[in-house]
Amino acid sequence: MFHGSIVALVTPMHADGAVDHESLEKLVEFHVNNGTDGIVAMGTTGESATFDEKEHCGVIRDVVRMVRGRIPVIAGTGANSTREAIDLTRCGMQGGADACLLVTPYYNKPTQEGLFLHHKRVAETVPIPQILYNVPGRTCCDMLPETVERLSSIPNIVGIKEATGDLDRAREILKRCGDRLDLYSGDDATAMEFIFLGGKGDISVTANVAPAAMHAMCAAALAGDRSKAEEINGGIAELHKVLFVESNPIPVKWALHEMGLIPPGIRLPLTPLAVRYHDPVRKALKNAGAL
Fold first, then answer.
1. Which residues of the chain have pLDDT under 50?
2. By CB distance 3.0 to 4.6 Å, which of 24, 139, 220, 284 could disulfide with 242?
3. 133 is known as an active-site residue
4. What is the largest CA-CA distance in the chain?
5. Which among 26, 54, 107, 133 is annotated as catalytic?
6. pLDDT given for residue 8 in this prediction
7. Cβ pair 138, 106 in contact under 8 A
C-alpha cells in the first residue's frame, strides 16, 4: 500500500513547547519537494507521548491539510491503553489520514495474547488501514513473529514497522506472512538490507534531514539496484548513527534547527542535545550535504 522513504516527522515547537505551525508547514513542503514518499505524523519522533488527545489529533489534521493529497499521511495512533488507541485511531481516520501506525502498548508489558487482542480490537473498531509497530527497545514489549502472523489475517492490518534492526526477524515475518503484510524497516542503519530482503520501505528518522538521499536509496533498493543503493547509503550512513547519540528525537531536532528549518523547542522530559554531540552531528550533516 505504501512504499519507499516514509519520514517519521518531528513536531516543530517554540521554546515554550507549543507547536510551531509555520515551521510544520515548512517541513511538509521540504519533504514533498525532496521526494519523500510518505509522512508519519505524531509517531515516536513526533513526541506523541507528550501530547494530549486534542493536540495529537490537531497535528494529524494539520499535516493532512498541509500535504493536500500529494503524498500519503500515516497517523501515529498507538497507546498503552486500548481505549485510547481506539480514540486516537478514530481521530486519525476522521482527520483524513491514509493509514494509522500503532506502536505496541508500552510500559504495561502485555502478553502475546494481550498484544493480539489489543490490535484486533482497534482494527475491528476503526476501519482504516493499520500498520503495526514493533520497537521493543523503547516499549519493553516485543511482538513476536507468530503474533504478527495471527494479526496478518485481519483485513485492515496491512503492514508492520519492524524496528528491532534484526534482519533474521524480518526474514521470519516475511516467511510467515508472505503477501498478506507489507514490511517496513524502522531502523535506518539496516533499512537498505531490509528492503533487499523484501521490505517495502523505511519509516525513517534520517529522512528528516536527508529526504532526497533517503528517497533515492529506497528507490534504488526497491528496484534491485544494489550498487546504486549502497553508494547512496554510504553517503548518509554517518547520519544513521549520530542521530541516535541521545534518545530520538533529541539529535534530529537539533540537526533540523542547525539547518534552519525549525526552532529549538523540545518537550520535557526530553532535553536539548548535549553540547559534546554538537560537532559530531554537525560534521555528519556536512558530510551528507545537508548543511
1. none
2. 284
3. yes
4. 48
5. 133
6. 98
7. yes
Q: Which of 26, 54, 109, 161 is catalytic?
A: 161
pTM for this entry: 0.97
What's the CA gap between 90 and 75, in Å, rounded? 10
The boundaries of the domain holding residue 116 are 4-234
Q: How many domains does the chain have?
A: 1
Residue 1: per-residue pLDDT: 78
The CATH number of the domain where 167 resides is what? Answer: 3.20.20.70
Question: How many of the other CB atoms lie within 10 Å of CB of 246?
Answer: 17
**Both ends of the chain: CA-CA distance in Å?**
33
Residue 106 is among the residues annotated as catalytic for this protein: no
Query: What's the CA angle centered on 26, arms 25 and 28, to 5 degrees?
Result: 65
Distance CA 206, CA 237 (A): 9
Specify the DSSP element, H or E, that contains 94. helix 82-94
> Do residues 85 and 122 lie in contact, with contact meaning Cβ atoms separated by under 8 Å?
yes
Q: Is residue 242 part of a domain?
A: no
CA distance readout (Å), 91 to 22, 25, 53, 128 = 22, 20, 9, 11
Q: Which amino acid is at 287?
A: N
- What does the pLDDT read at residue 112? 98
**Is 257 within a domain?**
no
* C-alpha distance from residue 40 to each of 9, 11, 36, 55, 202 (Å): 6, 11, 11, 16, 11
Query: Which amino acid belongs to residue 51?
Result: F
